[in-house]
């Protein structure tokens, strides 16, 4: 009987298993996860779960019994190691597991602040796993001064939670602006204003020198010598693709596990999907760090493992909840030559990114209608005039009827 093993029990790994069963795969199926919890949603960790608004059970993608009910051997609490592509085996603790096809869905890890910069002090946290948030919850609720290192989505979501819990919050961003890698300057300016209105201090062009404290952090020292008081420091300085097991197996990697358009790695019996996978996109290679990509790519890879031979065609979209504002992004704002705004920079508003008459992306801040219309236009490849989108008199929904 054919045996498929999936390494990585996150959103992509769970979706590969679910799709394999939905598509009729009746062979042995094993899902291996390093964490002790069954696969769970990560986006609510830094929002609803940290605030205590979402229970742990609601995070789980499926109840634990679901895996046994679907004939999935769920192995938790031990990372897979020593993949041998020639023998088609891997080691799990003292056990050697044979496989016919293997899928790698190991995802991302939070980039830590190094010990020499104070990253090993008490009160310093990253936000990536359930265990991270469980460790952070009590100190954050008791904190008076919180410093967030990094002005990306994770850092800003954590800043919003800190303010909701009553702490004084300062975001320290080394770059010239927040959201520098993931959003346009216009979108970043709107989100900056929202945080400032809620009492967050935003420090841009501010490089952290090190954290100060004996065993417990007490301050964050900036490169200019200024010290910011801190009971808790939340580090959001990026995510690292988990590629070590793939590299050790001799698979091609370069800031991600390199796959072809079908999700195959450099070994045709091994596949990869989700945040760790680097796939062909717009003439190059790309990784997309989003729930939707994890789900969509996992479904495509699972079907290709069963012989579908259909290339993965991503339709990127992302979201971030900060306070009572939802930022929704459809598409990727790369290669654009014009951006137009609806809403005069105040919530609700949206930014539309064009390359000629091709709509590349839409950033919608508190504007679900603009997001919905923009997403459908991008998916359909419809051509719309930038000036028409910019005109506040234009009925966006009418653009869908052409």
Task: Please supply descriptive tags for the structure shown above.
FAD/NAD(P)-binding domain; 5-stranded parallel beta sheet; 10 helices; 3 domains; 402 residues; Enolase-like, domain 1; 26 strands; alpha/beta
Describe this entry's structure for a reader:
The protein has 402 residues and is of the alpha/beta class. The chain folds into three domains: 3-109 and 239-305, FAD/NAD(P)-binding domain; 112-235, 3-Layer(bba) Sandwich (FAD/NAD(P)-binding domain), CATH 3.50.50.60; 324-401, FAD/NAD-linked reductase, C-terminal dimerisation domain (Enolase-like, domain 1, 2-Layer Sandwich). The protein has helices spanning 11-22, 56-59, 64-69, 130-142, 153-164, 185-197, 244-248, 291-305, 368-380, 386-390, and strands spanning 3-7, 28-33, 72-76, 81-84, 89-92, 95-98, 101-104, 108-110, 124-126, 145-149, 168-172, 201-203, 208-213, 217-222, 227-229, 232-235, 239-241, 257-258, 270-272, 277-281, 284-286, 317-322, 325-331, 338-342, 349-355, 358-365.
Strand order in the sheet with the most strands: 3-2-1-7-19
The CATH superfamily of the largest domain turns out to be: FAD/NAD(P)-binding domain
Number of strands: 26
Shape descriptor: globular
Q: Low-confidence parts lasting 5 or more residues at pLDDT below 50?
A: none
From the 3D structure, determine the CATH topology of the largest domain: FAD/NAD(P)-binding domain
Give the percentage of residues in beta strands. 25-35%
Cα gyration radius (Å): 22 Å
Oligomer: single chain
CATH architecture verdict of the largest domain: 3-Layer(bba) Sandwich
